[in-house]
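User: Quick sanity check before I run a bigger batch. Here is a single chain. Can you write out its predicted 3D structure?
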Amino acid sequence: MCWISTQHEHQITSRMEPYMLPVFITRIIQVVVQAVFILIARRLRALSADAKKMKPGKQFVTYLLMANVSDFSS
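Assistant: Done. Predicted structure follows.
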């Protein structure tokens, strides 16, 4: 991805900007951490009737999903 973003039609010598590598590394770390959280969340279950009824954390998960969608839609 770093190589693709440095390619320009009007430039003969393409040079990567200094901030690009840390940005891409941060994105990769974010994707890995998010994937780990998703895999952990798949294994969590509400066992008691009260927990199934109240569903604690549902609003927080909804917020995280909406924040994620709005983050990648811009």
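The mean pLDDT is 76.

User: Great, the batch can go ahead then.
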